[in-house]
Write a structure and sequence with these properties.
- With 137 residues, the chain is α+β, with helices and mostly antiparallel strands.
- The protein folds into three domains: 3-35 and 86-98, no CATH class; 39-84; 100-137.
- It has four helices and five strands.
- Strands 1-2-3 form a three-stranded antiparallel β-sheet. The protein has a two-stranded antiparallel sheet with strand order 4-5.
- A hairpin with a 3-residue loop joins β1 (20-24) and β2.
Length: 137
């Protein structure tokens, strides 16, 4: 397979998973992981206090308005978290796609599968996500 075909196939796989293309050359491409906010965090930090605030406002205005103010603080914290989280960037080259999968360390020192970039144990014989055996083509 040619470099371009390898890169196009891998690029389609990443974009289907929601990754955004940052840059692309003849020899590789860089993608950024989509940032998502946990639905559970939104529910417990925004929706639940808001419902409690509305319910409490029916009986006591000071308590209800205090809880609604708390909702605004939690919403601001979620927005701040969204703005300050460092995006996950990957650079994939055609050479990486031709070599057998192996366990590599990313910039944060986490052991990852070189084929699918999933965190894995260093003693693992194969990737738990893509099932590629390490050290074999």
């Amino acid at each position: 397979m040619e470099d371009r075909q390898l890169l196009d196939r891998e690029l389609r796989r990443y974009t289907a998973g929601g990754w955004q293309i940052v840059s692309q050359t003849e020899h590789g491409f860089q993608v950024m992981a989509p940032h998502t906010v946990s639905g559970v965090a939104v529910f417990f930090l925004v929706v639940m206090p808001m419902m409690l605030g509305i319910f409490a406002a029916l009986f006591s205005v000071p308590i209800g308005s205090g809880l609604l103010s708390l909702v605004l603080v939690f919403a601001a914290l979620l927005a701040l978290n969204h703005l300050t989280v460092r995006p996950k960037l990957l650079y994939i080259s055609a050479d990486q796609l031709r070599t057998p999968a192996s366990i590599i360390r990313n910039a944060d020192g986490v052991s990852m599968c070189s084929a699918c970039w999933t965190p894995t144990r260093t003693e693992a014989g194969k990737c738990p996500n893509c099932s590629v055996e390490f050290g074999k083509a």
